[in-house]
Structures are given as structure tokens and as C-alpha cells.
Amino acid sequence: MSNPVVQTQPARQWMVAPQGLSGIPPGLEYMSSLDQLIVKQRVELMEMFTGFEMRNKYDVLNSVEQQCYYAEEESEFCNRIWCGPTREYVMHISDNSQQEVMRIRHDFECCVGCCWCATDSSCGYEIQIEAPLGNVLGYAKQQTSLWKPHIRIFDANRQPMYVVRGPCCWGCQNICCTDDIDFPITDLTEENILGRMFKRWAGCGREMFTDADTFGVTFPLDMAVTSKALVFGCLFLVDFLYYEKPKNNN
């Protein structure tokens, strides 16, 4: 796939990148001073009026609404129409200088996404996370469960690092229940909570007529930057696997 055309972004204050840091992949310096990221998907008017799935675009913000990154999906039109959230795509993540600093890949596979069949070796929805480009940081992959979301995050050698689980009511957010839907991040014992991912209520209009959702992730301030990047990348798996389907919003 070729790199997408960089589009003009709306005016927003950008976070100042920390200086003088070493041992951190280029472009990930922002994460060294953060313990939370908010990911807001942009509304696509063409998608609203035609029903055709357009390329997803996201603004990535810190806790005071300063922009840290911009993410844009690269995928084929026919894949978006016929394959839905299981489509092949590359998510390009760029900083304020429009330099791509992370890349998230999902390859199309038939029959993925069923929580009953997903395992480490087959049928699980998986993404690969790179930073800097060409350097695989790790993976996030759906795991077997009865109905609750269950994801594992792996390092570059496919050794498990973290577990992410969601509630059985992950698709029940509505105007009468606008609380965040939490996906706790734990160690492998699932006894120690290290952070959380969450889907935030984006407002009645956005939730009813679009699939432009708002997500967030929290993690320890002293967590390794590469680990923060893996957890951040896993947010896109949560979005595509559980909230990209129109029926969950409409």
C-alpha cells in the first residue's frame, strides 16, 4: 500500500514534544510525559449521507485536549464495503511535523472476529504495531471468550505482556447509559490492574448517526514508552473489532 495523502487538519493546539530524551523511538517522545491519551474519530460527512464506509481518521489528544498525533487509515474502497471491520488496512500515525512515527497493520483473513474461535494461532483478530517504521514493537490479538472482549498484547517475539478484558455490556452504551465502557489492562495474572482503555459517550448525534467514536487509554506515567505505544495501538483493535460495525451505534 502507498502512503495516504496528508490532508489539512483542523486548527488545534499541538503538544510540545519533550526534548533531550534518548533511547526512545523517534516521534514517541510525547508519550514519555503522558499517562493518558484520548482518541477522537473524525466525522465523515460523505459516510453519513451515503452509508459508504470511508477511511477512518483520528485526532490523538492529551488530557488537556492538546494534539499529540494524527492517525489516518489506508485501505481499499471495496475492502471497506465488502469486508467491513475485518478489512485489510494500515493505520498511519504522524506527529505535528507530519512525519509518520507509528504504523499499525491488519491483514485480511477469512472468519476472524468470533470470540468463541479466537486463539493465539488462528481465528483471532490481530494487529501488528511498528515504531519506528519497519521495527515491529509487538502485536495485539483477540483471544477466546464466551462473549466478553478478551485481548492479549504481545512483544515483538510474541511473548505475552498484558491482558485486556471488556464487560459483557460493551455494546450497550446509549442515551440512558452514558458511562464510560471500561476495558481494564492487567498483567498476565489478571490480578494487578495497570491501566484501562475506555469508550466514551460521544454525544447523541454522533452515536446515532455516525461510527465516529471517542476512546481513551490510561497507563502508569513511568511505564516504558514502547509499552505505552503497544497499549495505545491496541485501542484501534478495540475500535475496529467492537465498534466499527454500524449496528452497534445505530
From TrEMBL:
InterPro entries: Scramblase (IPR005552), Tubby-like_C (IPR025659)
Keywords, alphabetical: Calcium, Lipoprotein, Palmitate
Statement: the UniProt record of this protein carries the keyword Calcium: yes
GO molecular function: phospholipid scramblase activity
Cofactor entry: Ca(2+)
UniProt family annotation: Belongs to the phospholipid scramblase family.
Protein role: May mediate accelerated ATP-independent bidirectional transbilayer migration of phospholipids upon binding calcium ions that results in a loss of phospholipid asymmetry in the plasma membrane.
PANTHER family membership: PHOSPHOLIPID SCRAMBLASE, PHOSPHOLIPID SCRAMBLASE-RELATED
Designated name of the protein: Phospholipid scramblase
Gene that produces this protein: LOC111130245
